[in-house]
Amino acid sequence: MIHKLIAKIQKTQAPIVIGLDPMLSYIPEQIQKKAFAEYGETLEGAAEAIWQFNKEIVDKTWDLVPAVKPQIAMYEQFGIPGLEAYQKTIDYCHAKDLVVIGDIKRGDIGSTSAAYATGHLGKIQVGSKCYTAFNEDFATVNPYLGSDGVKPFIEVCQEENKGLFILVKTSNPSSGEFQDRLIDGRPLYEHVGEKVAQWGQEHMGDTYSYIGAVVGATYPEMGRVLRKLMPKTFILVPGYGAQGGTGKDLVHFFNPDGLGAIVNSSRGIIAAYKQEKYASFGAEHFADASRAAVEDMAADIRRALEAK
Predict the structure, then answer these.
(1) SS3 label, residue 71
(2) Local structure of 107: helix, strand or coil
(3) Residue 163, phi then psi, degrees to nearest 5
(4) Nearest CA to 90 among 104, 107, 106?
(5) Which of 149, 279, 251, 246 is nearest to 235 (CA)?
């Protein structure tokens, strides 16, 4: 799957992943009204609104980007109907030939991690039959429990030719409370980065590992250090746009070949119509605003890499 991700980045010339993280406050009134007219102001109605919102954004942007990243919590908050919308979103994105990164941030004791890995990336045996459940292509993983929590994911990825993005240095303001703590004179995130590179050797593609890392765009100098520690690791970079990251903050995350990183933007794309820059599209054409935001983001990243 890492080969497909790289090929699609090269084809689109846009190392971008759209974070499909819908909140009801992002969804235009006309979509909510239609969903509530059919299902009522219920969890089912909210899930239908989310699904229709996602579908329209994907329809307008699928040709511009290699991947999407639905954040499962935004769906779980609506219970089982929300998870059904999550599954429909994954299936629809696959139908558009997009790479799907399930932003699930799992990581637990071995047997529990194995179950998470099976549910999201692998296959489950039911009697004489075998099924896939959510069937994402990549998943995000929290490494805090150590190798016991990560190895079951790697084993499933090896079986299914799928991949991971492991949290190393996250973009949130308080990440430094733990991640920046010095261990043997070096910040914890460097130790985690080295471990991710080590795990990556267990599941290598031609040039990059299937085992990637998450490093926030809001910490570009740390990105420079981690890029050197993880030369064969693909880095998923959150924090662009709404969280303050810009194209010039991203250059250190890329290798000289122009690859090695994919940049996430969530509300900066899916709620673009709410920004002053794209307000002229209006709520009725919210997905066209999302397309324009993707085009602007791709141009910003290209300019920054060309100036590197």
Answers:
(1) strand
(2) coil
(3) -140, 175
(4) 104
(5) 251
In a domain, 52, yes or no: yes
For the entire predicted model, the pTM comes to 0.95
Q: Are 236 and 214 in contact (CB under 8 A)?
A: yes
For the residues 295-302, what does the mean pLDDT come to? 94
Whether 152 is in a domain gets the answer yes
In a domain, 134, yes or no: yes
**Catalytic residue of the set 105, 232, 248, 274:** 105
Angle at 74 between CA 71 and CA 77, to 5 degrees: 140
Query: 111: domain CATH number?
Result: 3.20.20.70
- What is the Cβ-side half-sphere exposure of residue 71, based on CA atoms within 13 angstroms? 16
Look up 248 and say whether it is catalytic: no
The radius of gyration of the chain from alpha carbons, rounded to an integer in Å, stands at: 19
Residues 6+ apart with CB under 8 A from 147: 195, 199
The H or E element that residue 123 is part of is: strand 123-126
Give which of 66, 58, 42 is closest to 90, Cα–Cα.
Answer: 58
d(CA 34, CA 37): 5
Cα separation, 106 vs 101, in Å, equals: 13
Helix (H, G, I), strand (E, B) or coil at 263: strand
Residue 243, pLDDT above cutoff 60: no
List the domain range (segments joined by +) for residue 263. Answer: 2-303
Task: Give pLDDT tens digits for 14-37.
Answer: 999 999 999 999 999 999 999 999
Q: Among 289, 287, 295, 292, which residue's Cα sits nearest to residue 55?
A: 287
The number of domains in the chain is 1
Name the burial class of residue 9, with classes exposed (0-12), middle (13-18) and buried (19+) by CB atoms within 10 angstroms of its CB. Answer: buried
Alpha helices, H only, 25-100: 29-39, 43-61, 73-76, 79-95
Q: Return the sign of the alpha-carbon dihedral for residues 15, 21, 25, 30.
A: positive
Q: Is residue 308 part of a domain?
A: no
